[in-house]
Amino acid sequence: MAKNLRAKLPPNDTLYIYDKNKEATSKFLQEVGIAAGSAGAGERGMNIEIALCARDVAENLPEPSHVKTVFHMMLHPPLPSITFSEPNTNERLFIDCSTIDPTSSREIANAVHSSASGRFVDAPVSGGVMGAKAGTLTFMFGAHTKHGGLIKYRVRPLLEMMGTKVLHLGGQGAGLSAKLANNYLLAISNIATAEAMNLGQRCGLDPKILGELINGSSGRCWSSEVNNPVAGVTPGAPAEREYEGGFGVGLMKKDLGLAMEEAERVNARTDLGEKAAQIYDAVNAAEPGKDFSVVYKWLGGAKAA
Predict the structure, then answer these.
(1) How far apart are CA 39 and CA 178, in angstroms?
(2) Which band of pLDDT confidence, cut at 50, 70 and 90, is reported for residue 89?
(3) Does pLDDT of 41 surpass 50?
(4) CA–CA separation, 234 vs 227, rounded Å?
(5) Of 59, 53, 54, 18, nearest to 38 (Cα)?
(6) pLDDT tier at 149 (50, 70, 90 boundaries)?
(7) I want to staple 243 with a disulfide (CB 3.0 to 4.6 A). Which of 38, 39, 128, 290 is the partner?
(8) Which residues contact 230 (CB under 8 A, 6 or more apart)?
(9) How confident is the model at residue 42, as a pLDDT?
(10) Residues marked as catalytic
């Protein structure tokens, strides 16, 4: 995401990056061919320096508690107001691309707005690691329509530098509601794809031909086409490298849990979700850190001949 952003930003714009994974940061700097800079401070100092200097701040963190901690550090004490010369840039813009619960996101947005530190938009992302590298991500964001100029001139252009589809779902938290609905479906379709591919192979079908059939028929889905769990079916998928990389099964377990909590809050039935949650609990215990398509291996999936 950062690589695509740097490539499309005006050359005179400054991009601040921070990742606790120093190896990932070093790799990024090498790939874009720029020298590293240092804030000369710890994690808290770096978060505050970025917030003080930047017009637009985008972050993506694993858990609700992580997002709350980062914003608590940035907003206590409240950030001073700033003015930029470009039109529609009289406030800082915070874009949270994390997948967290909508309630926590609204609480963070309220803290940002009530402290007059800027505007906050929830903009979770879909498309996986491959989509992030290719710049083909889908962003779904929540922001009040009364901030139309902010949406048109700042939110959309920034997100379009990292993705090909940017959808405004509604008010604060709507982006996250959409993301949880999407990932609820993804969690279940991933299991169904693994079961179907295993079923077909045990019936004697060639996995590549089976995959081609499914992806040209009504069973087609992201898990079958882009992230097929059987090695040799989708070039570049995590199954090709023993399920390393990709979207971790622990994150899928977390997202499904958030979706189930939100479903309970709005009184929506999730009969399949309860069984899927049990499966991801077991898979995460057996294959921690692997891409969530490793559910195929956990099921005892047949190996391609």
Answers:
(1) 36
(2) low
(3) no
(4) 7
(5) 18
(6) confident
(7) 290
(8) 197, 201, 207, 211, 239, 296, 301, 304
(9) 43
(10) 179
